[in-house]
Write a structure and sequence with these properties.
Elements lengths: L3 H27 L7 H38 L3 E5 L2 E7 L5 E7 H8 L5 H7 L1 H15 L4 H37 L4 E5 L8 H4 L5 E3 L14 E5 L2
Antiparallel strand pairs: 1-2, 2-3, 4-5, 4-6
Helix pairs in contact: 1-2, 1-6, 2-3, 2-5, 2-6, 4-6, 5-6
The chain binds zinc ion.
């Protein structure tokens, strides 16, 4: 697979979150903190930050669904039809006995954000709340408006990095799911084979894995790939 589709859509998404954070900055800059008591200031900031984080999160879920659809379709060669967020594929012989099954991208993403995968948890679970709380605190203690802008930029960078990784992850997960749906049992690990490949990934290059046992990507920015393998 290539990450072209993920990258293209992600570019649009990152513009959207930049805009959301910019307008948050404008709103916060307009608040007269010195006229508010601590409790009021907390409430005012928390409400606004929460709203922006929720928007960024919801939009992220929407593009994750698109990634899931795209990469499942990319690897599954037994697709019957695609309708909305669902893909129907067949199991069995093309013209003989066959059964139809459905890949539900929305459900796939829903399950994905609940998995135990460490990267996933980091993005969607505790980290979401932690980032939000941290952003609110940093804004309230920033002292001046320039510092506040800096804190917001930092929060935006964190969000960006993790949302990007979530996109890469789900793309690969859906790609694997598509192979599994098509009956692929083994895959070969393929690295990008350039000097940026880390030693852990490099050691896996060319190795064969059972598709239901593979863990990929391995780390942030891992762009290793898989190809079906016949044993
Ligand atoms: Zn890698």
């Amino acid at each position: 697979m290539t990450y072209d589709y993920t990258d293209k859509l992600y570019k649009k998404y990152s513009l959207l979150i930049v805009r959301a954070f910019n307008s948050l900055n404008r709103e916060l800059q307009a608040l007269a903190f010195d006229e508010l008591n601590a409790g009021k200031a907390y409430k005012a900031v928390n409400e606004r930050v929460k709203k922006v984080y929720k928007k960024c999160y919801d939009e992220l879920i929407d593009i994750l669904i698109l990634f899931a659809l795209h990469y499942f379709e990319d690897s599954c060669d037994k697709i019957v039809q695609k309708k909305g967020n669902k893909i129907t594929y067949y199991v069995g012989k093309k013209d003989g006995f066959r059964k139809e099954k459905t890949f539900d991208a929305e459900k796939f993403v829903e399950d994905y954000v609940k998995t135990d995968n460490i990267i996933v948890k980091y993005i969607f679970d505790n980290e979401y709340e932690r980032k939000l709380t941290r952003a609110v605190e940093a804004i309230l203690t920033s002292g001046n408006k320039a510092e506040m802008k800096k804190e917001l930029d930092k929060a935006l960078r964190y969000w960006n990095r993790q949302a990007k990784q979530a996109g890469d992850n789900i793309s690969m997960e859906a790609y694997i799911e598509g192979f599994e749906a098509a009956g692929v049992e083994y895959v070969k690990w393929v690295t990008e084979k350039d000097e940026r490949v880390c030693p852990t990934c490099s050691a896996r290059d060319g190795k064969i894995y059972r598709i239901d046992k593979i863990i990929i990507p391995l780390h942030y920015n891992c762009r290793c790939n898989i190809v079906p393998y016949e044993k």
